[in-house]
Amino acid sequence: xxxxxxxxxxxxxxxxxxxxxxxxxxxxxxxxxxxxxxxxxxxxxxxxxxxxxxxxxxxxxxxxxxxxxxxxxxxxxxxxxxxxxxxxxxxxxxxxxxxxxxxxxxxxxxxxxxxxxxxxxxxxxxxxxxxxxxxxxxxxxxxxxxxxxxxxxxxxxxxxxxxxxxxxxxxxxxxxxxxxxxxxxxxxxxxxxxxxxxxxxxxxxxxxxxxxxxxxxxxxxxxxxxxxxxxxxxxxxxxxxxxxxxxxxxxxxxxxxxxxxxxxxxxxxxxxxxxxxxxxxxxxxxxxxxxxxxxxxxxxxxxxxxxxxxxxxxxxxxxxxxxxxxxxxxxxxxxxxxxxxxxxxxxxxxxxxxxxxxxxxxxxxxxxxxxxxxxxxxxxxxxxxxxxxxxxxxxxxxxxxxxxxxxxxxxxxxxxxxxxxxxxxxxxxxxxxxxxxxxxxx
Length: 442
Ligand SMILES: Cc1ncc(COP(=O)(O)O)c(C=O)c1O
Fold this sequence. Notes:
Elements: H1 9-18, E1 23-27, H2 28-41, E2 49-53, H3 60-68, E3 72-75, H4 78-86, E4 94-97, H5 103-112, E5 115-118, H6 122-131, E6 136-140, E7 147-149, E8 152-155, H7 166-178, E9 183-187, H8 199-218, E10 222-226, H9 244-259, E11 268-271, H10 275-278, E12 282-293, E13 297-301, H11 310-314, E14 320-322, E15 332-337, E16 346-353, E17 361-364, E18 385-389, E19 395-399, H12 404-408, H13 415-420
Parallel strand pairs: 1-18, 2-3, 2-11, 3-4, 4-5, 5-6, 6-9, 9-10, 10-11, 13-15
Antiparallel strand pairs: 1-12, 7-8, 12-13, 12-17, 14-17, 15-16, 18-19
Helix pairs in contact: 2-9, 4-5, 5-6, 7-8, 8-9
The structure holds pyridoxal-5'-phosphate.
């Protein structure tokens, strides 16, 4: 599929006059339309709910948009729970799917009335001691072995740290019921970024059969089945994006084949998507700072892996468009880099692009999920701003860029912070002290 940015050069020039590059930009219209398609695809299931995986893009403005579209949140930590609460999500609008969970995280999840998804058998006792066992509870299932679709191995759950074994689920449900649980759910996440319409239907069938077996063996009532995340997006132009309507229909067929005959036609389907909800509706906007000609041709951006870690961490492909040159032929081969002192800080290697000049705007596609959120401060780099391109074409700052003051904030009990930022600050850099009196503009 041809990959086109959702923003034009003129829009980016306007935005960057107010909020300098680099910044992550999100497309409100795309987010809303996609959420509506998802809900339509699963509208056959009465209890269907999407719990957006906050870890993918923890921004309150985006969470509020998703809330308006009918989504809940899926949290993995104390701060994600706080953010959900702050955005108005409450009680069973929040799923809490975490692992190796600290006591205070369970305590907060219980206080907010979130649905807790236990990652391990031993967490039953742990949760009981901290907050008691709630009436509604979910357990994460790990079937072990290889997870295959059409005989192709998608992932190896037996190597994954998550979830209960089948025997532990059976034992766990009995124990949870003894401790007062009344409504049960199961959850599994068996493969990530699947660009295959079959992923959810195959996973759903496996979970539906497990639910029937659990009901038969333990007598508990299964209220919901959480298919978690894992529905991917087409990062590469040659990939065919998932068809959410085909996915919804495939899950429906498995539901009618397995759950309905077992008298479980009232089970609610939950999803916990992150990437599918936001990745294509975000991009990292940056500018070319330098060009370098050594053994290869390098283009250095003002963004780096600290703004988008996926290429450096997984060798992940992210499409790049040079704004204003969308229709120019890709005649030049470049490595597109950031400025970290790490040779893997490359957004693209040997990428064919139009001829690039210093000052060009480069849009890195599909950064709306697991983009900003995986950012970090290595090399003292500061996190970028996040900007929302609204449905009416206007733009809004939804997170300001970090400043050196933020970077030093955790030293605010030391003299170091005060030297630069406290009342008694004694050190400043004035641009007029520079040789040319100003920072060269790209
Ligand atoms: C428990 C859980 N749920 C949902 C998700 C979202 O996954 P994705 O963004 O692939 O949809 C993740 C991602 O890591 C996860 O760990």
